[in-house]
Design brief:
Layout (H helix, E strand, L loop, with lengths): L3 E5 L3 H12 L4 E6 L2 H10 L4 E5 L7 H8 L7 E6 L4 H9 L4 E4 L4 H12 L1 H13 L7 H15 L7 H13 L3 H26 L8 H9 L4
Parallel strand pairs: 1-2, 1-3, 3-4, 4-5
Helix pairs in contact: 6-7, 7-9, 8-9
């Protein structure tokens, strides 16, 4: 299946750069415009799987499109692009149905990984199933960060798991937080999951203490849980 993408980006140069880059990875750009007014018509009349939406646009900005013109029950994914990473904007965009929020300038290698992550339903469902079975709750930020970690690990299964050097910084960049927040949130999620089924799974393996983050990820990666 070819992923169909529409781009709503104020900068024509950046929009063309995004188009050129993602088409190298087998995606198809089926629509592109540079202001909110044109976006309304394009979104109405185009079938697509992913919307790349700049938040700063002429006439109608990205938040305005999300509030008024993008249906709440839309069946496509949305990644918002912005040069500003204020928590209030991030929170508002996420509440309006945005799946990811990426800061400019865009790191295109990570950008492609994020697109693969949110649009590859099979990979996501597998991670969700494993974490759910182990007692992790989606309401905890650490559960989402674990899902991000598993995605990164599964994309490079031969690589050694390097938490502080690679994994935490990459997850932090994806979610616009500090690496220390990633580690702290994952530890909290493990604490909560321990009494929600994770302890039993470990007891069955002859282990009776909470795992470190590295141990947990390695066991999931190896299929030991």
């Amino acid at each position: 299946m070819i992923l169909k993408v529409v781009i709503v980006e104020d900068s024509r140069e950046l929009a063309l750069s995004i188009k050129s880059h993602i088409e190298q990875y087998g995606m198809e750009v089926v629509g592109m415009c540079h202001n909110g007014k044109d976006a309304i018509e394009m979104l109405k009349n185009t079938e697509f799987d992913l919307l790349l939406l700049d938040l700063i646009l002429p006439y109608i900005d990205g938040i305005g499109l999300l509030e008024t013109y993008i249906p709440k029950d839309h069946n496509y994914k949305i990644i918002c692009l912005s040069a500003f990473g204020k928590d209030t904007i991030l929170t508002e965009a996420m509440a309006l149905g945005v799946d990811y929020f990426i800061l400019k300038p865009i790191n295109f290698d990570n950008f492609i990984n994020r697109i693969h992550q949110i649009c590859n339903i099979e990979d996501e469902s597998q991670s969700d199933e494993v974490l759910d079975r182990l007692g992790f709750n989606d309401k905890h930020k650490g559960t989402k960060y674990l899902r991000d970690a598993l995605f990164i690990i599964n994309k490079n299964p031969e690589d050694k798991i390097q938490l502080t050097i690679k994994l935490y910084p990459e997850i932090a960049e994806m979610n616009i937080v500090k690496p220390a927040n990633v580690e702290r949130s994952i530890r909290h999620a493990i604490e909560k999951a321990w009494s929600n089924g994770l302890e039993q799974k470990f007891n069955e393996k002859g282990k009776f203490v909470k795992p470190t983050i590295g141990e947990l990820l390695k066991m999931i990666k190896d299929g030991a849980l």
